TrEMBL record:
<dbReference type="GO" id="GO:0005829">
    <property type="term" value="C:cytosol"/>
</dbReference>
<keyword id="KW-0902">Two-component regulatory system</keyword>
<dbReference type="InterPro" id="IPR039420">
    <property type="entry name" value="WalR-like"/>
</dbReference>
<dbReference type="Pfam" id="PF00072">
    <property type="entry name" value="Response_reg"/>
</dbReference>
<dbReference type="GO" id="GO:0006355">
    <property type="term" value="P:regulation of DNA-templated transcription"/>
</dbReference>
<dbReference type="InterPro" id="IPR011006">
    <property type="entry name" value="CheY-like_superfamily"/>
</dbReference>
<feature type="DNA-binding region" description="OmpR/PhoB-type">
    <location>
        <begin position="130"/>
        <end position="229"/>
    </location>
</feature>
<dbReference type="Pfam" id="PF00486">
    <property type="entry name" value="Trans_reg_C"/>
</dbReference>
<dbReference type="GO" id="GO:0000156">
    <property type="term" value="F:phosphorelay response regulator activity"/>
</dbReference>
<dbReference type="GO" id="GO:0032993">
    <property type="term" value="C:protein-DNA complex"/>
</dbReference>
<feature type="domain" description="OmpR/PhoB-type">
    <location>
        <begin position="130"/>
        <end position="229"/>
    </location>
</feature>
<keyword id="KW-0804">Transcription</keyword>
<feature type="domain" description="Response regulatory">
    <location>
        <begin position="6"/>
        <end position="120"/>
    </location>
</feature>
<dbReference type="GO" id="GO:0000976">
    <property type="term" value="F:transcription cis-regulatory region binding"/>
</dbReference>
<keyword id="KW-0597">Phosphoprotein</keyword>
<dbReference type="InterPro" id="IPR001789">
    <property type="entry name" value="Sig_transdc_resp-reg_receiver"/>
</dbReference>
<dbReference type="InterPro" id="IPR016032">
    <property type="entry name" value="Sig_transdc_resp-reg_C-effctor"/>
</dbReference>
Amino acid sequence: MSHAASLLIVEDEPKIARLMADYLTTHGFEVTTLGHGDEVMPWLAQHSPALVLLDIMLPGKDGLTLSREIRQHWPAIAIIMVTAKVEEVDRLLGLELGADDYICKPFSPREVVARVKAVLRRSHAAADAPAEVQNAAVVLNEDGWQALAHGQDLGLTAVEFQLLRVMMQAPGRIFSREQLMDHMYRDNRIVSERTVDSHIKKLRKKIHEALPELEIIRSVYGVGYKYQPEG
């Protein structure tokens, strides 16, 4: 890491916040901690962290609301949700609102460091890619993590953007759910296939709202999905 990445920890339990901050600082990150949800947006308006570790249960604004607002205003900031809720619906909800990853309590400090590094690696890989991947219908602006359809911002979450980017780089190629999961999560975790289906469903809905005449993300029954540019 050529320079220390800046991180924001939003956690209302001081011991947990301090543990994460100490461990991440030891691994070379610059860390700020906040304990109240209402403090987050004003702080972000003055600072530009690479990543936010965001607890779901917070006083003031909750983590899911904050995740949605952060993604709307600062799409390039990576988000890792931290939750004591282990139900799949909560995990899906957190990711669909814009989070890049999640960590379930209780967790080890090493797991936090590993997840942070993995998410930042994915973010850096996207930033190092060509600035725009274009075709007649959709343009990807990777510097701003935006997908534009005829100039209209589709408002994709980070995960949706990555899925579209992967498929657009290989038009016509059929990706299995497992292959798409490998691109979404490079730490070999086990993730339900319906997680991919959920992200694809929302991605297709957003594209359809902007391009109702086209179906550029297509399902291949029993196999997976492909990006099929117009024509």
